[in-house]
Amino acid sequence: MLTALFFGAEIRIWGSNSHSIKPDHDDAHYTKACYYELQDNYEGAIDSLQRAIELDASYRELAKTDTDFDGIRDNEQFQALVKWLN
């Protein structure tokens, strides 16, 4: 839970300064997806995870086992996203 709180604090900082986040920072999008999922913002989680995967396909494999996504693991959009092939 400490990790989730840390990520949450980071995302809040990023959210309030969104102009300072470069759109090609894959790790920022992945962390944001984790934060959104932990806040039950499933649409935000899917959108951010999709962007992270577009920037770096290795996040697809990571998301498959990342416990931060347990709340949306059965979501059809999540399942399609982690199974999507380039």
Q: How would you describe the overall organization of this protein?
A:
The chain has five helices and no strands. Helix content is 67%, strand content 0%. The radius of gyration is 12 Å and the shape is globular. It has one domain (2-83). Helix 1 crosses helix 2 and helix 2 packs antiparallel against helix 3 (42-55). The protein is an all-alpha fold and 86 residues long. The termini are far apart. Residues 1-6 have low confidence and may be disordered. The longest helix is centred in the first third of the chain and has 15 residues, at 2-16.
How is this structure best summarized?
The protein has 86 residues and is mostly helical.
Give the strand content.
under 5%
Low-confidence segments, given as residue ranges, are: 1-6
Order of helices and strands: HHHHH
**Structural classification:** mainly alpha
Number of helices: 5
Q: Count up the domains.
A: 1
Measured on Cα atoms, how large is the radius of gyration?
A: 12 Å
Please bin the fraction of helical residues. 55-70%
Quick one: overall form? globular
Whole-number mean pLDDT: 79
The counted number of beta strands is: 0
Described by strand count, sense and barrel closure, the largest sheet is: none
* C-alpha end-to-end distance: 33 Å
